[in-house]
Amino acid sequence: QVQLQESGPGLVKPSQTLSLTCTVSGGSITTTGTHCAWIRQPPGKGLEWIGRINYEGILAYSPSLRSRTSISRNTSKNQCTLQLSSVKPEDTALYYCARYEDLRYPYWGQGTPVTVSS
C-alpha cells in the first residue's frame, strides 16, 4: 500500500521560503507513469494544484505560482520536496502531496497545515 507523509514547519513568516518534504513508502517515485504532486487548500477554499515532478524528474508548475515554486526529489530517500519562496499570508493553507498513477491521484498524504504570519 502506497503511503505519503508530508513534513515541514507549520509556521512561516512573510517573505520567507516554505519548505515541505513528502516521504513516499510502498512505491518508488521513479515508477514509470507516476508523479509526485503538491496540492494545497486554503481555508474555506477549494484545492489548488501547485506542481509536480514525474518519474523521470520532469517538472510542471501552476502558471500562477511558477515564479515562486521549486519542486525537487531525492530518489535515494524516495522523497519529493516543495519550496515556495516569498510567502504571503494568502499562502496559508493545508498542503498535500499526492501520487499520480493510472490517470488519477489515488494516494494522498494526510496534509500538513502551514500558516504564514509574523
> What integer is the average pLDDT?
97
Task: Write down the overall geometry.
Answer: globular
- How does the helix and strand content classify structurally? mainly beta
Largest sheet, described in full?
7 strands, mixed
Percent of residues in helices: under 10%
Report strand %. Answer: over 45%
Distance between the termini: 39 Å
Q: What is the alpha-carbon Rg in Å?
A: 13 Å
Order of helices and strands: EEEEEEEEEEE
Query: Count of DSSP E strands?
Result: 11
Specify the number of helices: 0
Low-confidence stretches: none
Structure description:
The protein is mainly beta. Helix content is 0%, strand content 53%. It contains no helices and eleven strands. Strands 2, 4, 5, 6, 9, 10 and 11 form a seven-stranded mixed sheet that branches. The chain is globular.
